């Protein structure tokens, strides 16, 4: 069975109309090329061989997701310096317009202009923001973001936020800054990327305490990650109980294994049932993003 049919069989057997993947990357070509060069060089945050399984041009990557039956996906862009977010948002807006199965995506960075371009992004119909605390190397409670978080909270737009300390800790990663952020903006809809690895337990705590905190499964539970940062078996019961707070994410195309493999390792977790699988692969995200 080829991979597309393998993925389709998974969601078809569960009676789903497809999969919603909240963690995929589409970027301007020059930015994506630099990201791939970083992975190829085994940069300091990686420190190991990391082949890009779905290295292809943009059209091919979109076609691949459609062949898998991915109903909706994202174009998670993120800046690593000032004066970058606004033009990334402009690119992502055009990409979403040309790619109707992509959730309209935007980003931000702590800079004086952030409030203006975030307000513009919300007005233009942005459905999800991306924040990357590790790569951006900023404190999420930076005062330059005060108005930004407030705007996003009031608009109810979810934020996929890479804030865990995997694959390597940053100056501002970990659960503590996010707990402080939520104490200030308790209605923020946060999707913690990668299950918050390796601080899985602490981010599960946040999801238990905050109805609007969710976690995405990106790369978690795969052998590639389990070798370095295994998910605690003692937390599997909590993972199941929090099934309505868990969303599927893949990190496509930047994964060092196959898409079907990632899905299988998720749905084969001990103790989960088909209702949990349906929620995580589709229904939770469909409800969050208002998909009919």
Description:
This protein has 292 residues and is of the alpha/beta class. Helix content is 43%, strand content 10%. It contains 13 helices and 9 strands. The strands form 2 sheets. The chain has a 6-stranded parallel β-sheet. The chain has a 3-stranded parallel β-sheet with strand order 1-2-3. The radius of gyration is 18 Å and the shape is globular. The mean pLDDT is 97.
Overview in brief:
This is Amidohydrolase. This protein has about 290 residues and is of the alpha/beta class. About 45% of the residues lie in helices and about 10% in strands.
Q: What's the overall geometry? A: globular
Number of helix segments? 13
The chain-level structural class is alpha/beta
Order of helices and strands: HEHHEHEEHEHHEHEHEHHEHH
Radius of gyration: 18 Å
Distance between the termini: 30 Å
| Oligomeric category | single chain
Quick one: biggest sheet? Answer: 6 strands, parallel
Strand fraction equals 5-15%
Record field, number of beta strands: 9
Mean pLDDT: 97
Helix content: 40-55%
Order of strands side by side in the largest beta sheet?
A: 4-5-6-7-8-9
Instruction: State the low-pLDDT regions, or none.
Output: none
Organism: Mycolicibacterium setense
Pfam family, one: Amidohydro_2
Keywords: Lyase
InterPro entries: ACMSD, Amidohydro-rel, Metal_Hydrolase
């Amino acid at each position: 069975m080829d991979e597309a049919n393998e993925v389709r069989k998974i969601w078809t057997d569960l009676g789903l109309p497809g999969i919603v993947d909240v963690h995929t990357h589409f970027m301007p070509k020059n930015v994506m090329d630099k990201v791939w060069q970083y992975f190829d060089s085994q940069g300091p945050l990686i420190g190991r061989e990391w082949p890009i399984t779905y290295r292809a041009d943009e059209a091919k990557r979109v076609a691949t997701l459609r062949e898998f039956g991915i109903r909706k996906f994202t174009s998670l862009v993120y800046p690593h310096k000032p004066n970058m977010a606004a033009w990334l948002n402009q690119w992502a807006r055009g990409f979403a317009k040309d790619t109707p199965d992509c959730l309209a995506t935007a980003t931000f960075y702590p800079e004086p202009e952030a409030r203006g371009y975030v307000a513009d992004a919300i007005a233009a119909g942005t459905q999800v923001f991306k924040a990357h605390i590790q790569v951006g190397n900023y404190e999420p409670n930076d005062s330059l973001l005060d108005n930004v978080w407030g705007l996003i909270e009031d608009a109810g737009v979810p934020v996929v936020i890479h804030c865990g300390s995997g694959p390597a800790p940053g100056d501002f990663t970990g659960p503590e800054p996010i707990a402080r952020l939520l104490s200030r903006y308790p209605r923020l809809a946060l999707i913690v990327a990668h299950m918050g690895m390796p601080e899985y337990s602490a981010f599960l705590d946040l999801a238990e305490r905050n109805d609007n905190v969710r976690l995405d499964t990106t790369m978690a539970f795969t052998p590639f990650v389990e070798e370095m940062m295994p998910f605690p078996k003692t937390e599997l019961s909590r993972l199941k109980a929090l099934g309505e707070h868990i969303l599927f994410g893949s990190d496509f195309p930047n994964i060092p294994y196959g898409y079907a493999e990632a899905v299988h390792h998720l749905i084969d977790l001990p103790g989960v049932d088909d209702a949990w699988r349906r929620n995580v692969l589709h229904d939770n995200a469909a409800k969050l993003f208002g998909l009919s």
